[in-house]
Design goal:
Blueprint lengths: L2 H34 L5 H37 L11 H35 L1 H30 L5
Helix pairs in contact: 1-2, 1-4, 2-3, 3-4
Bound molecules: protoporphyrin IX containing FE.
The site of protoporphyrin IX containing FE has 23 residues, from helix 1, helix 2, helix 3 and helix 4.
Length: about 160
């Protein structure tokens, strides 16, 4: 296998990571949270959310690392760091930004503060807490889909 093969494999691994990761975010945003918000018993709702989202967070941590490493490898091989200095590569900025936000939330904020904070808020006012977390997911999903769109178009020759 030559370095070109490794590069193609890194791209395939990168996209696989993105599919699992952003696909999971889409499921949580468009199916899981709206369904949970229909449950009237707020304790049951919170317990279900913690069990299901907790399982997804574990998977998301793994794919975040894989996507970041494969992306970094491609950048290094292409020696494309100067793309960050050009606005037409906004999709590179957006990809990196999304990766950074998820890494921060999954590895630092969620275990240290967000988990406790959300539980407290959900016990105080469940509807409000779930509406807020749903809004956050919608924003992140929209930005992620925009990044996927921009990255595929940009990586395959579209000039923004
Ligand atoms: C630190 C984080 C990341 C880095 C360093 C990175 C880097 C890269 C690089 C270098 C490419 C190849 C571009 C080219 O061929 O011109 C790429 C492609 C791509 N990235 Fe990322 N990426 C990161 C995170 C993400 C995230 C979070 C997403 C999804 C939201 C994403 C989605 C994609 C997609 C869809 C492609 C296009 C694959 C193709 O069609 O060939 N990346 N990324």
């Amino acid at each position: 296998m030559d370095s070109g093969d490794f590069f193609s494999l890194a791209r395939a691994v990168h996209v696989l990571g993105v599919v699992l990761w952003i696909g999971g975010v889409a499921f949580v945003t468009t199916i899981l949270l709206p369904s949970l918000m229909k449950i009237t018993d707020s304790e049951n709702r919170l317990n279900l959310f913690e069990a299901l989202e907790g399982k997804f967070a574990f998977q998301a941590r793994i794919v975040t690392v894989i996507t970041g490493l494969s992306g970094y490898y491609m950048l290094e091989v292409m020696n494309a760091w100067e793309r960050y200095q050009h606005i037409q590569f906004w999709w590179m900025h957006l990809m990196t930004f999304i990766w950074f936000i998820f890494t921060l939330v999954l590895f630092v904020l969620e275990p240290l503060v967000l988990h406790r904070l959300f539980r407290k808020q959900a016990i105080k006012n469940s509807d409000q807490a779930f509406a807020l977390i749903h809004r956050m997911h919608k924003i992140l999903l929209t930005l992620s889909l925009l990044a996927v769109f921009g990255a595929v178009a940009g990586a395959h020759g579209f000039q923004f």
